[in-house]
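Appendix B, example 12.
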Amino acid sequence: MEPYSRKSPLLKKCCLLLCASESYQNASVDLATLTGVKVGHSSQHRLVQRQEFSYSQASGAIAQLSIDGGKVRLRTERGLPCEWRDYKAVRLQDLYYGAFFQDNLSLTDWVNSQPLTNPVICLGDGHDGVWNLFNEIATTEQRQEILDWYHLKENLYKVGGSRKRIRQAEALLWRGRVEDAIAIFDNCHRRQVVNFRAYLKKHRLRLVDYETCQQLQPGSIGSGAVESAVKQIGRRLKISGAQWKSESVSQMLQLRCAYLNGEFAV
């Protein structure tokens, strides 16, 4: 037991484990039910805020990573509407979770501290903020940037019009024939088409032969893993009625990631 502490290491671990999955109030009730020990919700909150967390270090080489954004609702002054703010989540090799609130430098430092392979696959959607972060990870020569296939397909189907033309463009993009896909829309000047052509040109270097990539390394064409990570992290942040002080968000993100990374496992 730590000096001047009434909580044993095991009891603290139990508190953190419960707080990572449910509200402080429910954690207090469940702890009493499971152990017979009562620790109030305020004490649970203080324990989480005082805890020092460290992000996981990969035990093996990291060949693939993906980044996406999530949202958290911040508490405001009485009478004012709540505010939603962004945080960034990272998934390494579909194994390790990391989440950072308004701290992009810590995100890139953590990723760069990992044993990244050369090349390392960087998966993301079309958001500029995601690719700006990738620009700070590894080197340009080391990164193999890939635009999420499912995000690409979603934008393709927003074009509308001839279904035959859409299917042809999809088949060409699947095989990495970007210029041929762009040429299909040469005679169409609707706003949706113009926007999609600009989108393809913007991400041209991130549009690969998805068919070959999928065959060589299954799961390397979509950022579903990090999207799932955002949902799992957000499950604690978005419990019914939850609003957060901005200074408490980072600590809860780290607690939730520690839980998802299995740091409380026996």
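The chain has a mean pLDDT of 91. The longest helix spans residues 246-260.
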